[in-house]
Amino acid sequence: MCAVKTADTQVVTRFAPSPTGYLHIGGGRTALFNWLYARGRGGKFLLRIEDTDRERSTPEATEAILQGLRWLGLDWDGDAVSQFERKDRHAEVAHLMLARGTAYKCFSTPEEIAAFRADQEAKGVSYALFQSPWRDADPATHPDAPYAIRMKAPRTGETLVEDAVQGTVRFRNDQLDDMIVLRSDGTPTYMLAVVVDDHDMGVTHVIRGDDHLNNAARQQMVYDAMGWAIPVWAHIPLIHGPDGKKLSKRHGATAVGDYQAQGYPAAGMRNYLTRLGWAHGDDEFFTSAQAMEWFDLPQIGRAPARLDFKKLENICGLHIAATDDAALLHEIEGYLAASGRPALADAQRDLLSRAMYCVKDRAKTFPELLEKAHFALTSRPVVADEASGKALDTVSRGILKSLTPRLQTASWTKDALEPILTEIAAAHGIGFGKLAAPLRAALAGRSATPSVYDMMLVIGRDETIARLEDAAG
């Protein structure tokens, strides 16, 4: 077995999705783990599009994957590599294996292989490895016919996969077949292409889902056959739904893009996905810079992680509250575009920017934030919803009418406005809470809003008085 990459080699990780659909949330976490591990060590994070399935691979799926990675904030080094465009290099390596004697030409036809398996099934053998009669055949006996290239896999002993997450995993060699690396039509198989690409790209750490763990044993044979250094393997458990079953659409969104369209902030998603199956003590809320510093492979658990939407929302709420207002506004505009909602007008953008300080606390998603900011985004006449409209009875309308003259000459600060509103409430024999309800209905058309003082300060004197006059009738 060849030596594993040494510790002083520059770390190079990769994410290698197949462009046959959207970027799954599990794929997003795999990309994130690779990104964190490389970035935290001054290494490279590479992107390879495994587009060898020409019938199912589409440019639209590739773009969806790239967009999902960009939204998560994961940048990669250099251009994305197309696996299909490297097919000649894959074939070259297969023929190099032939020359090294670690692979052989197999002339068995599909019909012969099918007949072998049918015979084994008739004998009660449910799964039998095909033993090619061409493994040790004299080249002089080779026919002039199409052939596949098969690896000469060891027949006895064990193949050990040393995994940074799973530990030492043993595979009996009598359970590993002489896999095809180059088909008779000259196209490479996945098992060969992945290894050649990882080697040529200088990948030092292969961090991927544990559904690829069995592949590692077979791919390791390719490394050995070519005399190449084996990368560090790290196979991470898959993500399950809250019920412990494999994540599917019945649990909710499975595509990374869906989370953007639902209004989750990217920083919150990065934080939550990092914490999903990995831990740094009891830390739950952290920045990407902290994650880069802390992230390491031994802290990844071996059990499948469970997606917890309540915890995701709590983490996202903390990130919304902690994010710079300008950056938050930019991301909200991205959310509006992704969800198909109308873009903000210039006046709305300005008011939302001014309102950010009083609407971003305790909002767990962008829809929640925008609902709190409804007072800044709506325009006259403000239409009260059913709940808040109940506060606009004849008495409360009269109170609002008596308030507007006092606001015409007031200094527009909370310290100046507070005694005025308190005095008006007392003059009508009610507490401030009774006055706040019709004020919320008039200013926002909602019953759940920021404080009435914050709303008044954000929209300004003229707009405040105009809305109160509209509500007073």
Automatic annotation (TrEMBL):
HAMAP family: Glu_tRNA_synth_type1. ATP binds at residue 249. It comes from the Bacteria. A motif ('HIGH' region) lies at residues 17-27. This is Glutamate--tRNA ligase. The gene is gltX. It comes from Paragemmobacter amnigenus. Coiled coil: none annotated. Gene3D superfamilies: 1.10.10.350, HUPs (3.40.50.620). Residues 10-313 form the Glutamyl/glutaminyl-tRNA synthetase class Ib catalytic domain. One of its GO terms (molecular function) is glutamate-tRNA ligase activity. It catalyses: tRNA(Glu) + L-glutamate + ATP = L-glutamyl-tRNA(Glu) + AMP + diphosphate. A motif ('KMSKS' region) lies at residues 246-250. Catalyzes the attachment of glutamate to tRNA(Glu) in a two-step reaction: glutamate is first activated by ATP to form Glu-AMP and then transferred to the acceptor end of tRNA(Glu). Its EC number is 6.1.1.17. CDD domains: GluRS_core. Keywords: Aminoacyl-tRNA synthetase, ATP-binding, Cytoplasm, Ligase, Nucleotide-binding, Protein biosynthesis.
